[in-house]
Amino acid sequence: MKGDEKVGFLAADDHDKSVELEELATVTHPESNVEYLFYTDFETDSDGRTKVYVSEILKEPDDETFRLGAVRNPADWEYLEQVLQLISEVTELEDEED
């Protein structure tokens, strides 16, 4: 994703506090046709790796806003794990190029 503009957005957490997030990828599951968003809140784990989350995109009736929801379809997890692996590999390649 080198050279691509990073897409940041604000979201409200469970306590209605604004948190800044960055979109990593948006995918549509090829069979369920459900849209998912991979994103980060810039936190790292104990090994220094950026934490990545995935949520279902729940569009509001106005079609301009959305909510992030838990992945509801267990069958979609295998696909989402493969996408996450690809994101990790691309990120590692970009880090090596820098």
Describe this structure as you would to a colleague.
With 98 residues, the chain is an alpha+beta fold. Helices cover 22% and strands 35% of the residues. It has one helix spanning 76-97; strands at 7-12, 18-28, 35-40, 53-59, 66-69. A 5-stranded antiparallel β-sheet has the order 1-2-3-4-5, covered by helices on one side. A hairpin with a 5-residue loop joins strand 1 (7-12) and strand 2. The two termini are 13 Å apart. The model has no long low-confidence stretch (mean pLDDT 84).
The secondary-structure class comes to alpha+beta
| Helix count, DSSP H or I runs of 4 or more residues | 1
Main β-sheet description: 5 strands, antiparallel
Q: Write down the overall mean pLDDT.
A: 84
Structural shape:
globular
* Portion of residues within helices: 10-25%
Radius of gyration: 14 Å
Strand order of the largest sheet: 1-2-3-4-5
Q: Which regions contain 5 or more consecutive residues with pLDDT less than 50?
A: none
H/E element order: EEEEEH
Distance between the termini: 13 Å
Beta-strand residue fraction: 25-35%
Q: Total strand count, please?
A: 5
What kind of oligomer do you see? single chain
